[in-house]
Amino acid sequence: MGSRVIEVRGLRKRYGELEALRGIDLHVDRGEVFALLGPNGAGKTTTTEVLEGYRARTDGEVRVLGHDPATGGRAFRERIGIVLQSTGVEPFLTVRETVAMYAGYYPRPRDVDEVIEVVGLLEKRDERVNRLSGGQRRRLDVAVALVGDPELLFLDEPTTGFDPRARRAAWGLVRGLVSLGKTVFLTTHSMDEAQALADRIAVIARGRIVAEGTPNAIAGRDRMRTRIRFRLPADGPSPPPSAERGPDGSFELRTDDPTRELHELTAWALEQGVALEGLEVAPPSLEEVYLELTGAEEGAS
Amino acid sequence: MSDLRLLARQVRFTNRAFWRNPASAFFTFAFPLLFLVIFTTLLGGGQTRRGGIAYDNDTYYVVSMAAFGLIQACYTNIAMSVVFAREEGVLKRLRATPFPVWAYLGARVVHAVLVAFALVAITVGFGEVVYGVGLPGGADLFRFLTTLVVGASCFTAIGLAVSGFVPNAEAAPPIVNVVMLPLLFLGLFIPIGDDAPAWIARLADVFPVKHFFDAAFTSFLGAPGFEWLDVSILGLWLAGALVVGVRRFRWEPSR
Question: Is the Cβ pair B6, A104 closer than 8 Å?
Answer without folding.
Answer: yes
